[in-house]
Design goal:
Strand 11 (about 325-330) and strand 12 (about 335-340) form a beta hairpin. Helix 4 (about 105-155) runs antiparallel to helix 5 and helix 6 crosses helix 7 (about 235-255). This protein has eight helices and twelve strands. The protein has helices at about 15-20, 35, 40-55, 105-155, 165-190, 205-215, 235-255, 310-320, and strands spanning about 1-5, 10-15, 60-70, 70-85, 90-100, 200-205, 220-225, 230-235, 260-270, 270-280, 325-330, 335-340. It is α+β, with helices and mostly antiparallel strands.
Length: about 350
């Protein structure tokens, strides 16, 4: 919106079509600014007086202004510049006021700020809920464990139990531990991608060996780690969680006379691509997408231990780092899990 005025009283010389539309189509040319806009804020006219006298341009950012629209008067936000107009001798004879409507940008920023505050509140509530829920759920599990032990002691120890009773108590403990794992997995999943650490320089080869050591695989599994894995700055704990889940998953499914897990990595553009390969039974193509869902397992939970959260957690963490995770597999040929991790 452009308005050109002349003289110390700012007599309006010309306006463009957008300016005229913004004042409801009124004709204001030939009128001093105070007469054309008797309700204008006094400080606005004072600014024009100051620019005319001093020759110093004025810039106003996101100035609130009432503007005529198709729906009547509406408060809009304008980036406003008022600058002096000079003749050949350098004397000021008028002003040019130039305004750009930035209302949508201002409102969008305000909405984003409101959304950020709402998200922060939601995250805090989620953390509080997850902590309280995990505490309240773990307490009865500890009680169940104690009850199982007391029952076994009351019946004279495991040596005097019937085979069926001993099996049921064992199953009870297995399911109790699974429930504990499920609670811990849900806590990790709820925080994944939201809680960040300061990046640090990480030797990936050393990290992989540390993860394997923590997992403590059976002695008959051959763990092969490619040499020359990279060293780079990243969030160590996040990457460790991904490796723990994928390497642990590979160890669990490696089978046959010579169970084997291979771990490698290579640079791919702005990413490192890591791979964890096992020689297990493999996964049919129709399940390649399903396995990444939370609580998804392809075998009965009493046959293969797990809560069905590990791969969902991997996917969530990797995507929070702008990467992606996928699997390459076919029945009978093992599985290779790959993920991209941004450098």
């Amino acid at each position: 919106m452009i308005c050109v005025s002349r003289g110390p009283n700012h007599v309006i010389d010309t306006v463009n079509a957008l300016y005229q539309r913004s004042i409801g189509g009124r004709t204001v040319t030939g009128l001093p600014i105070r007469e054309a806009f008797p309700d204008a804020p006094a400080d606005r006219v004072e600014v024009m007086d100051r620019v005319y006298v001093t020759g110093e341009p004025y810039t106003g950012t996101e100035v609130a202004e009432s503007v005529e629209t198709n729906n009547g008067p509406e408060e809009r936000y304008l980036n406003l510049v008022i600058q002096p107009l000079k003749n050949r001798d350098g004397n000021i004879y008028g002003l040019m006021s130039h305004a750009v409507d930035v209302t949508e940008q201002v409102r969008t920023r305000q909405e984003l700020a409101d959304l950020a505050l709402a998200l922060e509140r939601s995250n805090k509530e989620l953390d509080s809920f997850a902590y309280a829920a995990s505490h309240d759920l773990r307490a009865p599990l500890r009680g169940i464990a104690n009850l199982a032990q007391w029952i076994e002691e009351d019946l004279g120890g495991s040596g005097n139990l019937k085979a069926e009773t001993r099996e049921m108590l064992g199953l009870l403990r297995i399911r109790m531990h699974r429930m504990e794992g499920l609670i811990e997995g849900l806590l990790q999943y709820s925080r994944a991608g939201r809680v960040h650490q300061t990046p640090e320089r990480v030797d990936i080869g050393a990290l992989v060996r540390e993860v394997v050591d923590l997992l403590g695989p059976p002695g008959d599994i051959d763990i092969i780690v490619e040499p020359d894995l990279p060293t780079f700055e990243t969030e160590r704990l996040m990457l460790q969680q991904v490796l723990m889940n994928l390497i642990g998953n590979a160890i669990k499914h490696a089978t046959g006379a010579n169970p084997r897990v291979e771990i490698g990595g290579r640079r791919v553009g702005p990413f490192y691509e890591f791979s964890i390969k096992d020689n297990g039974p493999g996964i049919a193509p129709e399940f390649h997408d399903r396995i990444w869902g939370i609580f998804q397992t392809l075998e009965a939970r009493d046959r293969v231990e797990g809560a069905g959260i590990g791969l969902a957690l991997v996917k969530k963490i990797v995507e929070s780092q702008q990467g992606r995770a996928w699997v390459e597999s076919a029945p009978g040929s093992g599985a290779t899990f790959r993920f991209l991790w941004k450098k």
